[in-house]
C-alpha cells in the first residue's frame, strides 16, 4: 500500500478505459527524493490483464479499501472501467454492495462521474436490483444523484427502470422528483416527470 492506502489493484483500476495502455493512473503519487520529484509511478501492462493477474494473486484485494474508504470497484467506476467491473462482480458478487466512506456504491460513483455505460449495465443486470435504491450517508439514491448531476442519459436510464423508487426520501426529505424541480430545466422536468410513459417509450427505442 502507498501512503493513501492504495493497493496495486487500486492503481490498476485507476487507468481510464479510453487510455488502455501506459497511462498515468489517477491514484499514482510522485516519488519524492529530498525536495525533488524524481519520477512518477506508472502502469505498463494492459490494465485489464493486470487486473486479472492481481486478483488471481490476491483475491482479498477486491475487498480492501483505501484511506478514503474507496474499494477497487469504486475506483473502476470512477475510471469508467466497465470490463473490470464485470470481472470483479463475476468473481466476487459481494463487491457490488460495497460502500465507500460516503456510503456510496459503485453505482453512485458511476452516476456522479456520468459513466453511462456502467449505469446502463447495472440497470440491465438483475443481480444489481438490490443496489438500485441504496442510499448514501445523505440519503441520496443513484437517482437523486443523477438528478443533481443533470445528465439526461444516466437520469433517463435509471428513471425508466421499474425497480427504481421515485418516492424515496433523502435526509432533506426530498424525493428525486422534488429535487428535479429545482435541479433540471423546466422543459426537461415536464418531459421526464410529467410524461414518464413517453420518456420510457422513446428511451427503449435507443
From TrEMBL:
Annotated InterPro entries: Ankyrin_rpt, Ankyrin_rpt-contain_sf
Repeat in keyword set: yes
UniProt repeat feature ANK, residue ranges: 138-171
SUPFAM superfamilies in alphabetical order: Ankyrin repeat
Keywords attached to this entry: ANK repeat, Repeat
Pfam family, one: Ank_2
Any single Gene Ontology cellular-component annotation: plasma membrane
PROSITE patterns named among the record's database cross-references: ANK_REPEAT
Name the record gives this protein: Uncharacterized protein
Organism: Aegilops tauschii subsp. strangulata
Origin organism lineage: Eukaryota, Viridiplantae, Streptophyta, Embryophyta, Tracheophyta
Amino acid at each position: 500500500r502507498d501512503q493513501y492506502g492504495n493497493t496495486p489493484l487500486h492503481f490498476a483500476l485507476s487507468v481510464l478505459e479510453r487510455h488502455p495502455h501506459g497511462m498515468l493512473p489517477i491514484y499514482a503519487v510522485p516519488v519524492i527524493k529530498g525536495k525533488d520529484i524524481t519520477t512518477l509511478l506508472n502502469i505498463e501492462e494492459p490494465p485489464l490483464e493486470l487486473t486479472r493477474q492481481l486478483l488471481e494473486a490476491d483475491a482479498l484485494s477486491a475487498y480492501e479499501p483505501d484511506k478514503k474508504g474507496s474499494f477497487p470497484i469504486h475506483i473502476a467506476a470512477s475510471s469508467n472501467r466497465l470490463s473490470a467491473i464485470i470481472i470483479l462482480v463475476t468473481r466476487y458478487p459481494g463487491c457490488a454492495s460495497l460502500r465507500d466512506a460516503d456510503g456510496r456504491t459503485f453505482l453512485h460513483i458511476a452516476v456522479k462521474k456520468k459513466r453511462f455505460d456502467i449505469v446502463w449495465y447495472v440497470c440491465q443486470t438483475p443481480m444489481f436490483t438490490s443496489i438500485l435504491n441504496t442510499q448514501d450517508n445523505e440519503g441520496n439514491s443513484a437517482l437523486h444523484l443523477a438528478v443533481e448531476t443533470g445528465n439526461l442519459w444516466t437520469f433517463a436510464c435509471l428513471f425508466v427502470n421499474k425497480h427504481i423508487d421515485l418516492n424515496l426520501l433523502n435526509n432533506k426529505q426530498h424525493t428525486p422528483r422534488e429535487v428535479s424541480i429545482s435541479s433540471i430545466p423546466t422543459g426537461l422536468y415536464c418531459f421526464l416527470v410529467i410524461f414518464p410513459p413517453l420518456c420510457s417509450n422513446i428511451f427503449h427505442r435507443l
